[in-house]
Amino acid sequence: MTLKEIIALDKKYYLNTFGDRLPVCFTRGEGMKLWDLDGKVYYDFLAGIAVNALGHSHPALVNAIVEQAKKFIHCSNYYYIESQAKLAQLIVENSCCDKVFFANSGAEANEGAIKLARLYYRKKGFPEKFEIITLEKSFHGRTLATLAATGQEKYQKNYCPLTPKFLSVPMNDIYALDRAITEYTCAVMLEPIQGESGVNPANVDYIKQVRKLCNEKGILLIFDEVQCGLGRTGKMFAYEHFGVEPDIFTLAKALGGGFPIGALCAKEPVASAFEPGDHGSTFGGNPLACSAGYAALSTIINDRLYENSAVMGDYFIGKLNGLKEKYGIIKEVRGKGLMIGVEFFQPKAVEVKLKCLESGYLIGSVGDNIIRMLPPLIITKEDIDGFIAALDGILEKL
Ligand SMILES: Cc1ncc(COP(=O)(O)O)c(C=O)c1O
Predict the structure, then answer these.
(1) Which of 44, 101, 223, 253 is catalytic?
(2) What is the pLDDT of residues 315-367, one digit of tens each?
(3) For the chain, what is the domain count?
(4) Best of 253, 281, 372, 374 for a ligand 1 pocket test (most atoms within 8 Å of beta carbon)
(5) Which domain holds residue 140?
(6) Where among 302, 320, 344 does a domain terminate?
(7) What share of residues in the chain are helix, strand, coil (percent, to 5)?
(8) Percent of the chain beyond pLDDT 90?
């Protein structure tokens, strides 16, 4: 089919919640590259929004999916699943958690975290401890509970009344958090590095104080590492940057390297609040998803891709700061590892994104003023140099 035909079909049949998509349709990918219908090559600096951590069509991931699909794809959580047990072990042995439950997406993993926090206190004899405090500008998903957790009105306003007992406070303001905590609070839930609002890392001191406050007040700390986890920020988990451990954290995006899977990860004794019948999923943790997850995660660990993320991230941010010196339009370059946002003084983000597309580079935009780069963790200096040269040319002509 031609691009025109595909667009016509899409417009007629697909329920459009994504607005005008970029006018390109990919046919194949390899490493950092994607090819469109005309054979034009694009360097993927967005990685499916922080998903394709290994780049495209990584042989370890492809083989794992093909081999498992040849054996069988799905059975049910009524039975023991080898790849599920192995993936849970891999996460536990490389993180601070003791138990893992698998979901199909980030929002679903977060729903599980919210349920677990509430149930933990209910089973301890405090059913009134129900409230969850989140941060302004956060993003936790599109389901009704995760929308209520998300501290951005634009996502919430059409769905009122929202699921009750969620409250957002400003990030990096420990007094605001302290004032918001009551006897009804069961958890604080936050992204240590916010993604969807344009890459905003929390202050290290703030996160340390949040951990301390949660300990003092006897409430749980949940980290949403759906976007910032699994090597993206230069460490295996973003919580490592802050010298604290959450009681619960969630994963998705990079976990399957492109195959949908999410995970709810919890320390004991919190994890054990979920007993048989308390939670579940038909598809979550199925053999195919967990085989993909095992291949993706073991590659991130064995190839130390989180280290490449740290080194390449520093290099990338350094080069972007070079462009900031050169062009007055750049207000700020921020991020950690390969989770990078560039804020402009003027509303030029969409224009820059489109010009990057024309030049064969895929990036994201957040609102009118911020562009976002979340490239695969396999990226090289040459890839970054190519992008910087293209962006330099674009900014020069803005
Ligand atoms: C931090 C964070 N949490 C949760 C989600 C929701 O994940 P999903 O779209 O897989 O439901 C996202 C998605 O962008 C995210 O960035």
Answers:
(1) 253
(2) 999 999 999 999 999 999 999 999 999 999 999 999 999 999 999 999 999 99
(3) 2
(4) 253
(5) 72-302
(6) 302
(7) 40, 20, 40
(8) 99
